[in-house]
Amino acid sequence: MNNQLYRRLGWQNIQKNKNIFFPFTLACVTMIAMFYMMHGIWMQTNERVFYGAGHMRDILKFGIIIMGIFSVFVLFYTNAFLMKQRTKEFGLYNILGMEKKHIAKVLFWEITYIGIGSILLAIFFGMLLSRLMFLVLIRMLQLKTDYNFIIYPNSIWITIITFLILFGAMIIRNTIQIYCLKPIDLMRSSQEGEREPKAKWFIAILGILFLGIGYYISLTTKNVLAALSLFFVAVLCVIAGTYLIFLSGSIVLLKLLKKNKNFYYHKTHFISVSGMMYRMKQNAVGLANICILSTGVIVVLSTVVSLYMGVNNIFHNRYPQDVLTSYVYDNGEEITKNNHYNFQKVKAALEKRAESKNVKIKNYNAYFDYDTCGKMINNKFVQDMDIMGNNKMQMLKVRLLNDYNTDYGKNVTLQKGEILVNNWSKYNITEKDFCVGNQSYKIKEEVDFTESLKEKNKIKNWIQEDNGVPVITIIVSSLQDMQNIADIINGKNAVEKTNIYYNLCFDLEGSQNQKEEFCKGLRNCINKTGIEGVTIVEDIFTPHQEFLGIYGSLFFIGIFIGGMFLLTTVLIIYYKQISEGFDDRKRFQIMQKVGMSKEETKHVIRNQILIVFFLPILLAIIHIVFAFDIIKKLLFAMHYNNTSLFINCTIGTVIIFVIVYGMVYGMTSRTYYKIVEGNE
């Protein structure tokens, strides 16, 4: 046999099996095009000269890596399906005289045709869409630019080399598989898995245990730092639990249904339950994959959409006023030198700079604060830096009475040893005294920081966002009282010294360019006054593009990854239904010969597909419900606290995904029925 015959056989096989080769080719083209576009945009941003391009480039690079890894998974999965469906055909070739090396050559040309065709088509469509995708990204970042998108040869060559290696690995895998199987194995391999599986109660219980651990971690994680460290542990537990539940839990459930005679001995239930029972082991992996991928689609899309839509909220949470400055308070001898916290001295320098930059300063907000972390033991606060990231961690915030009265328009007075407290009863503390070390303070009253402020811009000084860390805020009568608390906490046994800070914040009035010019070099301006202890000089204008670069890129990558997960889910469902259709065709033909009508056959098929289809999506939604709280805390680490928006985005994503999922169900169920009826 010559190479021309192998090439012709390979091409004919693709044409004759187009119902399974077309989705495989479509998957190849899509994955290659997405990889090429991602790499091309990454190369383009490398040339951009705008603030935040570095973060954007890092995120895009991460997206390229994810695309490459997932491409391996998707293409090898679909290739494995092709091999399984055609092993009987290869066995027949072998029995009719074709040697294994001849079959391997036919497979070589099949993958070669699909690989080269997919790469060429993908790069062509990628070139057409890359500019559009880049413009979409630029629009997301709110950049006004006339940059022309450039096609980089490196992106083309890296894409070609990467996927040629991938297709080459597929050819090697297929060749090894052919050489390892005997002719009789080739004839029988498509019928593997027909033996009824046993109910493995231990594995089923283990799966429930893993799910329980994952859910427990999600529900009991109380703060952001703990969420960051435990999230992936919870994810791994849920993934393991999902696979074990589908592998053994589903079989246990079917066995229980089979024991229920009233349910099982019904002509539709009998066929549905027994049909799924005989191939549940191989079905279970596919169902678990669908469930995990569905969860991934919903989590990724709902999260990135929430972040992008709430970017302004995130930005203003991080920067409640236009300019934030902070200074370490020092109560030593140097305070008499007038080099610390001299409001008038700093104000004079700021006003002079504002005049030179044609802007006006307004809404000055000056206050002292002291924050530390530790734990409450009954009504006593103990500093403990080792507890950071632990669910038992609590924060202590100390504020001044004068600031409270000014901001809230109050006229509260405190006697010596008295304090005001916020969040005292909320954290189940019933004592009327608050202790720090050996010092005890009498609680005059519990205050509510959610009351209306005289100036809304000052709200961030008082209200603590819900990040899951219990916060006790106490209000003392004087700076000396604040210093006494700091001295007690920073005693000889203190793990880490913590400081009191003087904060000066304000807003600017003027054009955007004028505000930005004012903020450039602001730290040097403050340093020239001779004020000591300057720690923070930040403004809302300088990092604006950086924020957009981070969250816009995350949204962009999230859409790509979410689409990739969705495509993979659809492919698994499609191939799974085709595989089951061919496996079920003979069985249903036998049932019709013994008296089962076509309507009854269709009803049985519908019941079976409904169970198989909607069990993964149901479990995926349960995963989302339990994961919601820990994801919310992870978002808070990115200064996102708009819970209502996140809830709406999650619900919207679930609804859209279920609609798409239902459409896939409709299409695949028709294909399945045609196969069973022998029409394909």
In a nutshell, what does this entry contain?
This protein has 680 residues and is α+β, with helices and mostly antiparallel strands.
Give the secondary structure arrangement, pairings included.
Layout: H1 3-16, H2 18-45, H3 53-95, H4 100-140, H5 153-180, H6 183-188, H7 201-220, H8 224-259, H9 261-264, H10 267-278, H11 280-309, H12 311-318, E1 323-328, H13 343-356, E2 360-377, E3 380-383, E4 394-400, H14 401-408, E5 418-422, E6 433-436, E7 439-446, E8 471-476, H15 479-489, E9 500-509, H16 512-519, H17 522-527, E10 534-539, H18 544-593, H19 598-636, H20 643-677
Parallel strand pairs: 3-6, 4-8, 5-7
Antiparallel strand pairs: 1-9, 1-10, 2-3, 2-4, 2-9, 5-8, 6-7
Give the N-terminus to C-terminus distance in angstroms.
31 Å
Which value, in Å, is the CA radius of gyration?
33 Å
> How many strands, which pairing sense, and closed or not: the largest β-sheet?
7 strands, mixed, barrel
Topology pattern, helix = H, strand = E: HHHHHHHHHHHHEHEEEHEEEEHEHHEHHH
| General shape | elongated
Low-confidence stretches: 189-194
> How do the strands of the widest beta sheet line up side by side?
2-3-6-7-5-8-4
